[in-house]
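Here is the promised in-class demo. Please do not try to memorize the tokens; focus on the logic of going from shape to residues.
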């Protein structure tokens, strides 16, 4: 067995364990995948598309790629179309934009973070995904957050918001008939990165100009230090999140 075959089997096993453990996929699901073009979303789409051919459970997969006119980072449209075509997944490309500056902010407790281009970009991308999902009749939106993302979000919330919370593996929306799922939740970033190298995923042509202007980079350093201090820190933190019921929100 080659390294790629071994790693793909490992990813697939943890992917299947995740949707079985947290009930992420069920018969009749219609899933819209948020395809940014980064390694995580490409890996997610590949795993979901291949699993959908097995028909157990039976579900449909489509993908959306949202382009921001005023944030200059992008992925090759040609590559994404080819990637989806090879997997037999319909791809929807949506272009939108948002206003940056004081006039884009709202009053209240969220005013400070809504000044952030990262918050506004994320919020508007989600809006486009929610709209398309409902137009297509999808009942689930799949996002490419892996275990490292979930653990770092937990540390971010503890450090800056004083609360123990994270991005759930499954989140049922309260105002619309949709659930957000994160099927890569049991997969670590290092394995996805290596798989992307072996599969020769095409990298994004332009990176986000705000990519390194958040506290998440600092938290990543803290998370790395925690693992150096205790090799089981990842599992300890994950077990704490799971035991507190933070990974599923109905």
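The designed amino acids, position by position:
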């Amino acid at each position: 067995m080659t390294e790629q075959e071994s790693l793909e089997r490992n990813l697939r096993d943890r992917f299947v364990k995740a949707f079985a453990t947290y009930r992420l996929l069920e018969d009749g699901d219609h899933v819209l995948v948020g395809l940014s073009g980064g390694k995580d979303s490409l890996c997610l789409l590949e795993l979901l598309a291949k699993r959908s051919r097995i028909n157990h459970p039976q579900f449909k997969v489509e993908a959306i790629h949202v382009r921001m006119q005023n944030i200059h980072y992008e992925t090759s449209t040609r590559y994404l179309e080819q990637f989806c075509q090879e997997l037999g997944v319909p791809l929807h490309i949506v272009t939108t934009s948002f206003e940056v500056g004081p006039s884009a902010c709202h009053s209240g407790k969220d005013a400070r973070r809504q000044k952030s281009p990262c918050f506004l970009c994320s919020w508007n991308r989600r809006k486009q995904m929610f709209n398309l999902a409902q137009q297509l009749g999808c009942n689930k939106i799949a996002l490419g957050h892996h275990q490292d993302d979930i653990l770092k979000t937990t540390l971010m919330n503890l450090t800056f918001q004083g609360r123990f919370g994270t991005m759930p593996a499954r989140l049922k929306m309260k105002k619309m008939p949709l659930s957000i799922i994160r099927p890569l939740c049991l997969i670590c970033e290092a394995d996805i990165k290596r798989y992307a190298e072996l599969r020769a995923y095409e990298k994004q042509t332009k990176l986000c100009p705000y990519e390194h202007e958040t506290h998440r980079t600092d938290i990543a350093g803290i998370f790395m230090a925690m693992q150096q201090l205790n090799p089981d820190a990842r599992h300890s933190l994950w077990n704490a999140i799971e035991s507190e019921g933070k990974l599923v929100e109905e």
